[in-house]
């Protein structure tokens, strides 16, 4: 019908969804007016392009009468009122039960799917990913707009998707798709915003500009989206627009950092430093460098960092906040350093409160939720965990963090259920299997945990220490000690988190050795 070739990609050319949406609107308008009397009604249900034909029932009117008797009064009317009354009671009950859920409308929501890289050179992937990230960041600064986190939206990278399915999984009403191509110093960006419910096109535009105009394009895209969704644009204008060369290094650095290998994190450090050298007022580049330095330990498989390393990370995060006080990630990192290394809980909470009141951030809400959890403020923590799940609903990290939180609260059944769902979606994820077994141990059912840990040990040998926890809980002290001895003998390079050894002794009821390994871990 539309003369598209076999290579047609609906992500780049949404003509079918657009025309189907227009057809649905025209059919609806037709049947609201003259078409209401038609004997046959044609519908195009959302989710399909196959028409449905419905025959309207023939209504037989009663014979006219000067004064209708009781039998002639239509029976439908009192029944309608009965249904309405029952419906009102049910709705009232729901309103009371949910308290305020219906009292305020949900804010407009959008997911920015990864822009497709149309440049022949795959090395330009960092540019299309970076553009996606920066548009997401721009929209996240809008107070009355719920923007899905990158980790959830990027689950769809490289896949042909149906936006209705995207909307269902990410729980959003709108989806932004697009593509980007580079040729010399020129860029071509195509972006279109679609409504999930009916696939209709809300806004679209094509930009052909110099690469130096990239930030202007990002601002125009964000403005087009806010206008289409009738949202107050808020703080769309950045405090500082970096120069094009610095931005190029920044996008490379962010892309490298996301690979989380020792080599890529080292390269990210170099990229971010180049960005700072090109533009010393670039707040996000300082924050990127702080993240790269902080993540070096994770990439090399050790959580240990020297005091000088930590102070260097903090200095960079504070510099980022000096240049842009609204960066949630910078506030969160300063808070993490304050509570994890300085035990300065007051400063940590102040920074986390600033983080969650700034641009919407799933990570900031996660960090504040765990802070509250550590202090036993479970109800407050749940509010921020809910916010985290709203902003990042589709990532395994969200499920993993929720499961861990429920476990720390002692809600073992819920922790296990969440972990089992996450394991079904991602069977290779070690942390979920580990937590499922641990909840059984904590509930006093080590016999249910042992098969899980033994199977996990085949893929992840350190799970032998988890097996030791189950044996300790089962009263098999000698077997538990045999399992952990190889790790104890390697101290101070045990090769595992040393609090795991403390847990084994805790399940034995051996307080002195529990404290010894906790002290070593600290």
In terms of topology, how is this protein built?
Elements: H1 15-32, E1 40-43, E2 52-55, H2 76-98, E3 109-112, E4 116-117, H3 125-140, E5 146-147, H4 150-153, H5 163-170, E6 174-183, E7 186-195, E8 201-210, H6 214-229, H7 244-257, H8 262-278, H9 283-299, H10 307-323, H11 328-340, H12 345-357, H13 362-374, H14 378-391, H15 396-408, H16 412-425, H17 430-443, H18 446-459, H19 463-473, H20 477-488, H21 498-508, H22 511-521
Parallel strand pairs: 3-5, 3-6, 4-6
Antiparallel strand pairs: 1-2, 6-7, 7-8
What does this protein structure show overall?
It is built from 22 helices and eight strands. It has helices at residues 15-32, 76-98, 125-140, 150-153, 163-170, 214-229, 244-257, 262-278, 283-299, 307-323, 328-340, 345-357, 362-374, 378-391, 396-408, 412-425, 430-443, 446-459, 463-473, 477-488, 498-508, 511-521, and strands spanning 40-43, 52-55, 109-112, 116-117, 146-147, 174-183, 186-195, 201-210. The relative contact order is 0.05. Strand 7 (186-195) and strand 8 form a beta hairpin. By secondary structure, the protein is an alpha/beta fold. Helices cover 58% and strands 9% of the residues. The longest helix has 23 residues, at 76-98. The N and C termini lie far apart (68 Å).
